[in-house]
Amino acid sequence: MAKKADKKIDKKAKDKSDEVKKLYGFMDRDDMLKKLSKHLDDKRLIHSIGVEYTAACLAMRWGEDVTRARVAGLLHDCGKCIPKDEKLELAHKWKLPVNGSEAENPDLLHGKLGAYLAHKKYDVDDEKIMSAIAYHTTGHPNMTLLEKIIFVADYIEPNRRIIKDLPEIREEAFTDLDKCVVHILRNTLEYLKVKDVVIDEMTERTYDYYINA
User: Fold this and answer.
1) Is the pTM of this model over 0.90?
2) Average pLDDT, whole number, for the chain?
3) Distance CA 146, CA 30 (A)
């Protein structure tokens, strides 16, 4: 009986995987995770899985496509562990736009590099997913729902250490998403200014847009 049940579950899983590939075009999650694990360290992989499931929860709450949210969440940091000195070189090689702050601190390019890799290495053709990956750190003015979800999920996923206002921000994520986005942007800018590190100009533009929206 148990073997029959296992076979039914395996068949349903395969049918679901085939259905997802037909609808969205990207590879099976298990294959995606296997490939991702070769390019991320353990801590970053655990974080990525945390973002995947947090994004799924937010998608169910706010009415976004759950599969898109999961894939964008899982792959959002797929360019994170590229060595810093290679990030700018690859951005130029792949003809990705680079702003002044990204040129000064190439680690800020990992979102754009990740969007490119999601397409080239993980078979993602969905523009909404690629854009959510590209802007998951900075956001941008007038974000889509999926972009907001990945931006927020990256900040609040369960493996994150407790930082200023995090419990409140986690609650806002499920009650007022735009308020949550502004709260994250404000805290991020305050933190970066205290640390006196390079601030991506897009983060500032995004904050200005949402506080005046």
Assistant:
1) no
2) 90
3) 22
122 domain-assigned: yes
Could you tell me if residue 196 is inside a domain?
yes
Which residues constitute the domain of residue 143? 15-211
- The answer to whether 115 touches 122, Cβ cutoff 8 Å, is no
Which SS3 state, helix, strand or coil, does residue 97 take? coil
CB 32 within 8 A of CB 26: yes
82 domain residue, yes or no? yes
The whole-angstrom separation of Cα 151 and Cα 41 is 21
Domain of 132, CATH number, reads 1.10.3210.10
Identify the residue with better confidence: 114 or 198: 114
- Chain centroid offset of residue 10 CA: 29
What is the pLDDT, as a whole number, of residue 196?
86
- Total domains in the chain come to 1
Residue 5, pLDDT > 60, answer no
Average pLDDT of the residues in 33-48: 95
pLDDT by residue (tens digit) across 9-35?
A: 444 444 445 555 555 567 889 999 999
Q: 76 CB contacts (<8 Å, ≥6 apart)?
A: 48, 51, 111, 114, 132, 133, 136, 150, 154
Q: In a 10 Å sphere around its CB, with 0-12 CB exposed, 13-18 middle and 19+ buried, how is residue 69 labelled?
A: buried
